[in-house]
Amino acid sequence: xxxxxxxxxxxxxxxxRNQLARECLAELLAVFVLILITLxxxxxxxxxxxxxxxxxxxxxxxxxxxMVAIHMAGGVSGAHLNPAFSLxxxxxxxxxxxxxxxxxxxxxLGAFLSAGAVYALYYDAIQYYSNGTLAVSGPRETASIxxxxxxxxxxxxxxxxxxxxxxxxxxAGVLAIGDHRNNSVxxxxxxxxxxxxxxxxxxxxxSNCGCPINPARDLGPRLFTYVAGWxxxxxxxxxxxxxxxxxxxxxxxxxxxxxxxxxxxxxxxPEESAAPARDGPGVERSIAIPLPARAPYGxx
Length: 300
Description:
This protein has helices at residues 2-14, 19-47, 55-73, 83-91, 100-121, 123-130, 156-177, 190-205, 215-230, 233-240, 244-263; strands at 277-278, 284-285. The protein is mostly helical and 300 residues long. Strands 1-2 form a two-stranded antiparallel ribbon.
């Protein structure tokens, strides 16, 4: 009884009623959890020299993190998790443009904070593995735990195309998963379907640059490594690679959303009602344009 009374008082004191604030808090937590699990999987693989993980476990942990994050914030913020997907929703007139910079900031902040949490969690392992030197390149580099870097053979042009195609496939796939006028998945199973989509993209397109397909996922942790001791090389390595996983996924979102509309959504027969439908608090969608039910995404 005492516990229940305390919880009621705490809720009355701390409850936030402003819709935008609620969405930002949910999005922040969901991105934090997503990147925390994703980077932890990478840290375990790198610091153990591959004895306690590999690319498959890293990709699987990231995909399952997507599922958890969507469940965590889907009914409040829509669980965008990715500025590229927020942009796609803006282009489809399903998300107000004035909210885009706010969500972008919150998503990047969540990724930055989670990188700090992973550094604290694996601090001893990172120090032991790297012999106390936080390197961006070389046999004992640890910067790739947090941000993505291109393979030695990858040019900026090919890497840019890689990210446009990967993010475009992600966005088009999520739109299809949530398209109630197509072969959408049963309500409630969207997080599982999106997680499997992310996993398939990572398995098939991860070798070039680690498949970031999310500007916040890459920029937030990269900024953390810059201030935490890895230095400015986090921006110069790979011929200044850092801007590619920031810009290219945004173009990929434009391409993916446009292709799905042009090849599928625009050709659905008209429905009797054009009234807007609601998929959760603050998440409005138009019946005329397919949209993931409650939980859009973008990973790793």
